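INTERNAL AUDIT FORM
Audit reference: QA-55
Scope: verify that the stored structure record matches its stored sequence.
Auditor: D.O.
Record contents follow.
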Amino acid sequence: MEPRLNVFASPSAGKAIKHLTAVGKVVSDTGLPAATQELVKIRASQINGCGFCLDMHTKEAIAAGENATRLHLVAAWREATVFTDAERAALELAEEGTRIADAAGGVSDEVWGNAAKHFDEEQLTGLTMLIALINSYNRLNVILQQPAGDYQPGQFG
């Protein structure tokens, strides 16, 4: 598969991606656990069918020491016993935030309240920005049909 556009050669795309990358740095500085960040990126990417992001974030998670069993069970996190309550709350918020168009009211108060039990305001801010950010990246890559499989951990910094 060939991408529809080469975003890596486009000056405009380069500028936009630079800003998206800066948002990712802000998220990392909020204290939201790195493992939770990768799980959220993986779950949103599964929902959105973004192979490029799935390739990237599963490989980054493995490089950071994530357990293969947990990675295999992200899509079935409700039934899996390998996630903490905080991770479950983050995954649930990620699902509702990703499927926002599917729910008449958007993210429910119940889901938000559950996340608020596990994360402070800075972490909730980071989690919210992360969900928006990964959905942006997913949409960019899906629209452009960015191929998956060749990503190397640390490739983008």
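Auditor finding: record pair retrieved intact. Helices lie at 11-28, 34-48, 51-63, 68-72, 85-98, 109-118, 121-144.
Action required: none
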